[in-house]
Amino acid sequence: MTPHVTVTMHERNQGKGAAIRTAAQQATGDYVIICDADLEYAPAQIPSLLEPVLRGDASVVYGTRTFGSHNAYSYLYVLGNRGVTTCANILYNCYISDLETCFKLIPAPLYRDLGVKSAGFGMEAEITGKLLRRGIRPYEVPISYKARSREAGKKLTGGTAWRRSGS
Question: N or C: which end of the chain has fewer CB within 10 A?
Answer without folding.
Answer: N
